[in-house]
Design a protein that fits this description.
The protein is an alpha/beta fold. It has helices at about 5-10, 20, 40-50, 60-70, 85-90, 95-110, 125, 130-145, 165-170, 195-210, 240-250, 260-275, 280-305, 320-330, 350, 365-375, 385-395, 400-405, 415-434; strands at about 25-30, 50-60, 80-85, 115-120, 150-155, 185-190, 210-215, 230-235, 250-255, 310, 335-340, 360-365, 380-385, 400. A six-stranded parallel β-sheet has the order 1-12-11-10-13-14, sandwiched between helices. Bound molecules: iron/sulfur cluster.
Length: about 425
Amino acid sequence: MNANAVTRAVRIPPIVPAASCSDLPVLRERGQREVFCGLTGIIWLHRKMQDAFFLVVGSRTCAHLIQSAAGVMIFAEPRFATAIIDERDLAGLADVHEELDRVVTRLLERRPDIRTLFLVGSCPSEVIKLDLSRAAERLTQEFAPRVRVLNYSGSGIETTFTQGEDACLAALVPTLPAEASGATPTLLVVGTLADVVEDQFARLFAAMGVPVRFFPPRLSRSLPTVGPNTRLLLAQPFLADTARALEERGATRLAAPFPLGAEGTTLWLRAAADAFRVDATTFERAIEGPRARAATSLARQRLMLAGKSIFFFPDSQLEIPLARFLSRELGMRLVEVGTPYLHRQHLADELALLPAGTSLSEGQDVERQLDRCRAAHPDLVVCGLGLANPLEAEGMTTKWAIELVFTPIQGYDQAGDLAALFTRPLDRRQRLVA
Ligand code: SF4
């Protein structure tokens, strides 16, 4: 099959928002959950902001979680660590604030490259009601202007793992400089993107003549300005608090689906192009090459995925955009799309593109959801690590949700790689049973 034939083989349904899908009934569950905590976000945030450091104030469990999730090399100078709250702290025998000051002072002496230090709260620090915002203020006064100290919570109590990024970025928003009065409108892309993806989007926006900044920036001190002339475009669907904080500073959110797959990327870029009055010819010229490459790579993956059924357990909050991509561009059948939280406003454009009758669930009652999954016996299950092994042992094929957050998946040039993340487990299962 040649490239042109492959390109023609892709049949993306026309983009006709089905109003009824935005009003899809949602099964709300509030039972036991199986998700990672917000500390996990440190793994991709520390790679992005190269002059920031994340100091978790937590237990040995917290330290093990991020060490094993990050696979830290012993020779690397890591940009995160854990200040362990031990038994003396928990018993109130030590002044935790004094100990924290000592740890931070030692860290900043050893690491002059650190410009922003995040104190990251955890379940233990919340349980002992350690006021990290007070600590951050005190330490900022001590170490300013060289280092800015901020705080947020990554605790696993009532949060899911991508909320760690939301909390971190929301903590950064008050530090963004105000835009100059009468500033020309600027696009602010919000949400951590791999550098390679950010560079691709920067080139596409430049080809359209759209001035763009990215948040978070690669250097935590190169913060973008914000104000009434800021048009914000979310690159991730889990940034409710960050978007609210930016809107409170005057920014206007552009409604769009998320940039997953060729269709999602086109609609996401078009939302920005429309806001900046880019004419249709310039827009088409800018995207035609990358969009054609995406169509070619998706056609190959579609051969494997079309007609296969998929079940999403709630985990990353990427579930709804992924379900839209897999059903519309790859022909998969959606059995159930679970999400930890459903932000109807931010996901309105995604919900409108889901097939009519899609089963949506929000929150989790894990035993009941497992029963529904077993009854449906889908071809592929997207879930957290804790559920994947037991389900594999029962003969199901699984995909770890967390991989979808660690891998660059946004944009045209990653569309094929994103689809391949779903074909690989199916391919592996086929080989095992062959
Ligand atoms: S923050 Fe809570 S859930 Fe996360 S590793 Fe620490 S103790 Fe566990």
